[in-house]
Amino acid sequence: MKWERTVTVIGCHVGGEDNHVIVGGVLPPPGATMFEKKRYLETQADELRRWLLLEPRGKPALCVNLVTPPTRPDCDAGVIIMESTDYPPMSGSNTICTVTVLLETGMLPMREPVTTLTLDTPAGPVPIEARCRDGKVERVQFTNVPCFVTHLGAKLDVEGLGSIPVDIAYGGAFFAIVDAPSLGFSVEPKEARDLVTLGNRIVAAAKQQVAVRHPENPDIQGVTFAEFAMPFAGPGTVSRNAVVVAPGRIDRSPCGTGTSARLAVLRARGQLAAGQGFIHESIIGSRFDAAIAAEVMVRGRPGIVSTIAGQAWITGVFQHGSDPSDPFRHGFTLPDMWFA
Question: What range defines the domain where residue 264 resides?
């Protein structure tokens, strides 16, 4: 065996969504902030993401998190999220998995019954409360970055559908949220392929027709996810959703940032108030507890701070290697799985 590099990864999932965490073999990228570190990987060192997430090592339904020292003095660790096509500034499911790995492996000290810490993310600091017992993380709750709505009921011309209403909100990334039943969906597993096909069309239309940009970081821009939402019956109830993730798949979890974006929409529509919440369910039945912790202003725009909670499980330890004689060592894709 002759390897030119090795990387150690802890496998982890939350709600069925695979979010692995790098624990060895990668040095922290340069940058004064986590966003600068993310941008460096995007523009100067994207081969790491491709190497881990594309075939033959990866798959479309996989994310990998790179843990670094924090860039803020009030944070305990930094994290950069790598998805199969890009680097989102924030991800709820990845946050829950990263915290679980950091605590259960001892990379950060676990304090029972509750460990508090703060993650430094490209979107900003994210406070964490982890409920722990007998060396295991049983629940992770994070307080997300401020979330806000940019459009309510905006008209979007979508291929094959014509004009449809969408709500656009930021929950750590920009989401186009649509009413699932009005499009003929009940968000069941058998609909996954059709949801992906339509979700990709919605995202493509939103990118072309709606300009959105974060008021505090203009480099965060553009709708990147479509979210199909089932009806909301009121505070404390269960509502199902499906978030379509590039290059063409359904988030197995309820999606933390998508849940935060939906909370912002529910507040803007007067359906939830500060201190209220609901249970968000994924297409496979996994659940996050979600609530509006506070109302805030984001550069003059009404917004919220959300809390999202769920549980993750470690699935394995992986030692990835690269043989210099392997013609596919840098990664590849085929459109049978990697839908464009």
Answer: 147-308
Q: Which amino acid is present at 97?
A: C
Looking at the fold, whether 284 and 151 belong to one and the same domain comes out as: yes
67-100: per-residue pLDDT in tens? 999 999 999 999 999 999 999 999 999 999 999 9
Structure tokens at 295: 């109302």
Does residue 116 lie within any of the structural domains?
yes
* Positions marked catalytic: 91
Cα separation, 193 vs 248, in Å, equals 9
278-313 confidence digits (pLDDT tens) = 999 999 999 999 999 999 999 999 999 999 999 999
Please check whether residues 172 and 278 belong to one and the same domain: yes
d(CA 91, CA 103): 18
Q: Which residues contact 219 (CB under 8 A, 6 or more apart)?
A: 35, 39
Q: Considering Cα of 49, then 52, then 57, then 58, what sign does the dihedral take?
A: negative
279 inside domain: yes
Domain count, the chain: 2
Alpha-carbon Rg for the chain in angstroms: 19
Q: 39: which residues sit within 8 A by CB, 6+ positions away?
A: 31, 219
pLDDT tens per residue, range 227-282: 999 999 999 999 999 999 999 999 999 999 999 999 999 999 999 999 999 999 99
Residues 241 and 277 both lie in one domain = yes
Q: What is the pLDDT of residue 337?
A: 87
Judgement on whether residues 33 and 167 belong to the same structural domain of the protein: no
Is 46 in the same domain as 58? Answer: yes
Per the omega criterion (within 30 degrees of 0), is the bond before 327 cis?
Answer: no
Is 91 domain-assigned? yes
CATH value at residue 129: 3.10.310.10
User: Pairing relation of β-strands 63-68 and 17-24?
Assistant: parallel
